[in-house]
Amino acid sequence: MKLxxxxxxxLNSPICxxxxxxxxxxxxCAHCLSSSGRRDPRELTTAEAKAVIDELQRMQVFYINIGxxxxxxxxxxxxxxxxxxxxxxxxxxxxNGLKIDKQRAxxxxxxxxxxxxxxxxGATPEVNDYVRGPGSYDMAIRALENLAxxxxxxxxxxxxxTRQNVDQLDEFKAIADKYGAQLRITRLRPSGRGADVWDELxxxxxxxxxxxxxxxxxxxxxxxxxxxxxxxxxxxxLPGLNLCGAGRVVCLIDPVGDVYACPFAIHxxxxxxxxxxxxxxxxxxxxxxxxxxxxQPQTGGACSGCQHYDSCQGGxxxxxxxxxxxxDGPDPECVRGFGEQxxxxxxxxxxxxxxxxxxSRTKIGKNTPVLLQLSMGRPDRACETSPLAGMGASQxxxxxxxxxxxx
Amino acid sequence: xxxxxxxxxCSPQVSLRPEPFGALVYHFGTRKLSFLKTLPxxxxxxxxxxxxxxxxAIEAAGVEEAQRPAYLKALAGLAASGTIEPR
Lengths: 407, 87
Known about the structure:
By secondary structure, chain A is an alpha/beta fold.
């Protein structure tokens, strides 16, 4: 049996464990996969988080990916980072750069087993801030400057690929080279608030091919989180694990301790258990009903007759689920176009599954991206009594900008 | 150069995590993940330390003679990646 076949039946412990420490975030990215914004009062305490780290050490999970929300807004973030590293659980954390000032950068440069991933979804402020909010480009670049100045080795720049930034791939690479960073590109999923903007942001079919060709040329220099395996049906397999690892080699622990099959599947259908329950994380990983089911041999369903099934494996479970497609059918971005056919066949009255877990801010703030402001803005009414009628929320200091991307 | 006639050991910077197919290897120095794809290979790697040379560790793990070249090749790869080292 090939190694990848073993992976389908699940490993004793995850290889790629994402742990979102908080739902709190200073930004309100339009496509946030976890619908983050406000802290959840039930989030794990420092002591509970340390107990999870102890357990991961026992289970020989050698490194974890920490995210959020913005994980560094947790006051105990640095304490947990040190604790994890001291317990042989290396950390890669994702941040928008908020707290990476010169002092932190120097501290991080002096720490082993820590890796930093700065999120950037546009190679220019226009494209980035359109989805991540005003000022977020400058914040990320400042963090990269501080890390480079402190001598931090090879931080990652993490880019979610969208219709607006596919043409910027070479520019992203140039930014990474400039700051001694490594470029990481991942796939946009219709998860969290991503569901609201997926139709507008997800790459066009021609752009899928463009990304694939770019990856074939530079796959060895660029990380992908193995998230583009659905593109392998274009031809040769891309480097990495060409398999959906959900519940088999991958899982997510969310800020309140809920364990989901993957970071892109925050929905009750993919909830396996909670680390606070008896037996903790290990019990959930080893014995939960959901993970046991995911580790059964999968059939290709509607895709089983397709000659490309072996390379794409039917694509991404979360992408199918949150676009209302059956899990055993084609990925919505199936490179042979079967996904688009399936989307078109859903009918006008179809209902897309929506997660109950939503920590989005309800107010428009200065960091709210344009995209969100446009979709959340309440139309002015003739009977509005305020003398500012017609100006409304757009009076905020961010101003209301016309989208430059996607037009 | 890998010498199966010499004594070796699993690197102290390496942790082996048992898995159904063999083991997952994590090297704390290089931070690289790799895999030992069979259970006998895990036994060989673990046994290196208590044998005078690689050959006797292979025999002790019950590896069939016909399989020896494949195991030596795998072990040479593990030596190149720093998973095992001369002692």
